[in-house]
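User: Hi! I have a protein structure encoded as tokens and I'd like to know what sequence might fold into it. I'm fairly new to this, so please keep things simple.
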């Protein structure tokens, strides 16, 4: 980007209306303005986001096992235009050879391209060490679910050039605690997900090093005992962050509000869980060999069922949903999709609010009366990726 540019709107974490002046991609000034301009009421300025669970989007499928640098660059560019400057590619349950190919392709791409690495610093392996049971297994193919295997994980880790940031496992599977210790010793974070673990299983896993619940409240049986089920122990465990899909399909608004209250603003992480059909027109699509339906309201389900199969939502919408449906302020909702996941995965983030001289790393977005969020302008590390 070259030249000068002005952005005006309500600033996340600050009071009133602000004007930012940019020059050659740098913050030249950030000042409050006395009177809002036309349309400023629901026009916002905020930092870019970090999405730690992306399975694909805009027709780009990360599950085939052979997605290379171009697919990652294309998806990085598309996500940046929707306000996400950093994201974690997610590889779901599959046969050993496909997982190995995917880890090798992504690891080589990330390690060999500094610009790409700044956007997609590492991987999330979701499965295959999860529950084989219908319900908690979700859209993962049952024939490829298997017990935790440290030797296999080491092969995946080496193929990925050490670029695995976290792995999701079921805590009740035999050998889970030892596997969690193994991964933690490698510096890989461990999340609990797609499971039916009881309180003792969850406590054992957390003692072994698990620190996150993957999309809590989803990847679970549809019908549960009211008191003794996997949700309550994870909500009560202060050592666990909870990632939440705030599209209001995966978690209805009252559930989202209650979960956020239970975990607290500092232990909530919002994710999109975006699937390859996200951003496309409604219809039937293929997800890692499984047919799924993308509905007009953005819900993605296993074809012909009400079982969810990833999300059609961009992360900014989830942040806005959370700020409207829970006790979180807009600033706290943004932190849950930025600072909180960065702290868990030890990733860098740019400062917010920015200071004069900083490279612009921000979005300008509108919120319509129905709560729909739309990015108007986006800047990533001093580069304009979307201009109004």
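Assistant: Happy to help. Inverse folding works backwards from shape to sequence: for each of the 388 positions I chose a residue that suits the local structure. Here it is:
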């Amino acid at each position: 980007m070259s030249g000068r540019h002005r952005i005006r709107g309500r600033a996340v974490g600050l009071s009133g209306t602000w004007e930012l002046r940019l020059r050659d991609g740098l913050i030249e000034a950030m000042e409050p303005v006395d009177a809002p301009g036309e349309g400023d009421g629901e026009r916002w300025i905020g930092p870019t986001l970090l999405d730690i669970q992306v399975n694909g989007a805009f027709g780009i499928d990360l599950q085939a096992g052979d997605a290379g640098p171009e697919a990652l660059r294309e998806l990085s560019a598309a996500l940046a235009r929707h306000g996400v400057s950093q994201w974690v590619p997610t590889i779901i349950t599959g046969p050993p050879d496909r997982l190995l190919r995917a880890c090798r392709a992504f690891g080589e791409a990330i390690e060999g391209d500094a610009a790409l690495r700044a956007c997609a610093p590492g991987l999330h392996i979701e499965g295959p060490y999860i529950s084989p049971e219908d319900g908690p297994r979700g859209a993962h193919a049952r024939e490829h679910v298997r017990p935790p295997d440290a030797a296999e994980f080491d092969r995946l880790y080496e193929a990925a050039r050490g670029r695995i940031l976290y792995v999701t496992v079921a805590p009740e599977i035999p050998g889970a605690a030892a596997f969690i210790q193994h991964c933690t010793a490698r510096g890989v974070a461990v999340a609990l997900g797609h499971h039916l673990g009881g309180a003792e299983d969850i406590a054992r896993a957390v003692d072994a090093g698990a620190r996150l619940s993957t999309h809590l409240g989803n990847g679970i049986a549809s019908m549960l005992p009211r008191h003794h089920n996997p949700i309550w122990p994870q909500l009560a465990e202060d050592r666990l962050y909870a990632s939440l899909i705030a599209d209001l399909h995966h978690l209805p608004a009252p559930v989202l509000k209650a979960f956020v209250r239970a975990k607290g603003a500092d232990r909530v992480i919002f994710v999109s869980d975006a699937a390859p059909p996200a951003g496309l027109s409604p219809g039937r699509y293929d997800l890692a060999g499984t047919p799924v339906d993308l509905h007009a309201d953005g819900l993605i389900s296993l074809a012909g069922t009400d079982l969810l199969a990833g999300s059609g939502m961009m992360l900014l919408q989830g942040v806005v949903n959370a700020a409207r449906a829970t006790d979180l302020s807009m600033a706290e909702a943004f932190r849950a999709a930025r600072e909180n996941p960065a702290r868990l995965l030890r990733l860098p983030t740019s400062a917010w609010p920015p200071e004069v001289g900083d490279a612009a790393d921000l979005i300008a977005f509108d919120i319509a009366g129905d709560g729909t969020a739309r990015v108007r302008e986006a800047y990533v590390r001093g580069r304009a990726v979307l201009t109004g």
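A useful reference point when you look it over: The two ends are 13 Å apart (CA to CA). Feel free to ask if any position seems puzzling.
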